[in-house]
Automatic annotation (TrEMBL):
A Gene Ontology term for the protein's cellular component: plasma membrane
Family classification: Belongs to the major facilitator superfamily. Monocarboxylate porter (TC 2.A.1.13) family.
Key words, A-Z: Cell membrane, Golgi apparatus, Membrane, Symport, Transmembrane, Transmembrane helix, Transport
Residues that span the membrane, as ranges: 21-41, 61-84, 91-110, 116-137, 149-169, 175-199, 239-260, 303-324, 330-355, 367-385, 397-421
Lineage start: Eukaryota, Metazoa, Chordata, Craniata, Vertebrata
PANTHER family with a match to the protein in the record: MONOCARBOXYLATE TRANSPORTER (PTHR11360), MONOCARBOXYLATE TRANSPORTER 13 (PTHR11360:SF19)
MF (Gene Ontology): monocarboxylic acid transmembrane transporter activity; symporter activity
Region (Disordered): 423-455
Major facilitator superfamily (MFS) profile domain boundaries: 23-422
Name this polypeptide is given: Monocarboxylate transporter 13
Subcellular location: Cell membrane; Golgi apparatus membrane
Organism name: Xyrichtys novacula
Length: 455
């Protein structure tokens, strides 16, 4: 009777975790938290002019503030995943929300650029890194059939908040100056804390870590650190292949966000027309995230195949962006931008939804953290490479051609995954259960005990 009780409880928890009602509450928490991370991060450019005028520094020096925040968010993502594996995702996300708000509040009292690097860059970036990966992994763990739709709905807040935050931040700067605006944004970021509080703590099974630590303390510590970071994934070919594909995709993905407006201006369109092109692409980006998630969950095609299709189409449309503007046709540029925005939004949710199929749901937290850490360098490389090609050639044609080719190269890399051409998903790898680990560790410890007794 006592042996069957834990098993029944485990089956009940697993059933509740699959597309359950509380999972949609967590989708709402992901919606709010991602808007307060990436939506806020995208809108910090409102403070760019204010910082240049106040600190009397170059634009390049000011631009390192947002770059430091983005790099810190991706760099600390594995730390957030490891802490969630070691402790509890609820505590980690709530701590990240406090750090994100604290960094912006301290930034409102900055007297030099170094203060902004440390506050808005490092402290807030650390908080963002502790929020995003755990929230995404928690939502994926609560959904099975509707996982892509759940992520699409959660990520749709990035585009919506980008539209809403830009005029809001401009109004705050005009009314309260940049110091008062940052103070208000710090308080706004503290809303991440209740989002983290909505995460239900999970029951952890007992493991013989005390026995292992007594026999081999150093090996036990290294093993626990490696397991929390999921470093073993770096030695598995499917995960390395998929990470490489996403990294290549990431090189060209952000190029239109940085240079499409400048390219449109260079093509002879007005400031209003150039800005509206990017806004229209952002609108279809929102539609693409939701539509892609809904269609993917119908189950007609494998998620990996749909990701390949959306990635290839996004790459093709990026390559077509300069072709449409060369003809001087604004409607042609608008149509291509709308199609690019839809495809770029459609692939975003699937990038994360495919990860559990590569590594299994049990290791998705660490897998997402390592993925963001590895792809962070590619995201920072894309814009400088595009700018370099523009300086060499004098226009953005080569920049968009190379950026689109990186997305197509990422699709070709995904095609080398095992069972890629199969019509059905192979069973995901399963992590050994705690009971199996207990048996294996007991088998290792028992011989040493018997030898001591004999001696």
């Amino acid at each position: 009777m006592t042996k069957n009780k834990p098993k029944a409880e485990g089956q009940r928890d697993e059933a509740e975790g699959q597309d359950g009602g509380w999972g949609w509450v967590l989708v709402g928490a992901l919606f709010v938290s991602t808007s307060l991370v990436f939506g806020l991060m995208r809108s910090l450019g409102i403070f760019f002019v204010e910082f240049v005028q106040y600190f009397e520094e170059s634009a390049q020096a000011i631009s390192w503030i947002s770059s430091t925040g983005l790099a810190a968010q991706q760099f600390f993502s594995p730390l957030g995943a490891a802490l969630c594996n070691a402790y509890d995702a609820r505590v980690v996300v709530m701590t990240g929300g406090c750090l994100a708000g604290l960094g912006l509040i301290l930034a409102s009292q900055a007297t030099c650029l170094v203060h902004l690097y440390l506050t808005m860059g490092v402290i807030s970036g650390l908080g963002w890194g502790l929020v995003f990966t755990p929230m995404v992994a928690t939502v994926m763990a609560n959904f099975t059939r509707r996982r892509a739709l759940a992520l699409g709905l959660g990520f749709s807040s990035i585009g919506l908040s980008s539209f809403a935050f830009n005029p809001l931040f401009q109004l705050l700067v005009e009314v309260f100056a940049w110091r008062g605006a940052l103070l208000i944004l710090g308080g706004l970021s503290l809303n991440i804390v209740p989002c983290g509080a909505l995460i239900r703590p999970k029951r952890r099974s007992k493991s013989p870590e005390k026995i292992n630590s007594e026999s081999k303390p150093r090996a036990s510590i290294l093993h626990r650190v490696s397991s929390h970071l999921e470093l073993s994934l770096l030695f598995e070919r499917p995960y390395i292949t998929y990470t490489l594909a996403v990294t290549l995709l990431n090189v060209g993905y952000f190029v239109p966000y940085f240079h499409l407006v400048a390219h449109s201006r260079q093509a002879g369109f007005s400031e209003y027309q150039a800005a509206f092109v990017m806004s229209a692409a952002g609108a279809t980006d929102i539609l693409g995230r939701v539509a892609s998630g809904w269609f993917s969950d119908l189950g007609h095609f494998r998620l990996l195949h749909l990701l390949s299709i959306w990635t290839t189409l996004a790459g093709v449309f990026i390559m077509l962006l300069p072709v449409s503007s060369l003809s001087g046709s604004y409607p042609a540029l608008m149509v291509i931008s709308l199609l690019y925005g839809f495809c770029s939004g459609a692939l975003t949710s699937l990038v994360f939804a495919v990860v559990p199929m590569i590594v299994g749901v049990a290791r998705v937290m660490g897998a997402l953290g390592l993925l963001q850490l590895i792809e962070s360098g590619a995201g920072l490389l894309g814009a400088p490479l595009s700018g370099f090609l523009k300086d060499v050639t004098g226009n953005y044609i080569a920049s968009f051609m190379v950026a689109g080719s990186f997305l197509i190269l990422g699709t070709l890399t995904m095609a080398t995954l095992p069972h890629y051409f199969s019509c059905k998903d192979p069973p995901p790898p399963q992590r050994p259960s705690p009971e199996d680990k207990d048996k294996s560790l007991q088998s290792e410890v028992e011989p040493s005990v018997t030898e001591r007794s004999v001696i």
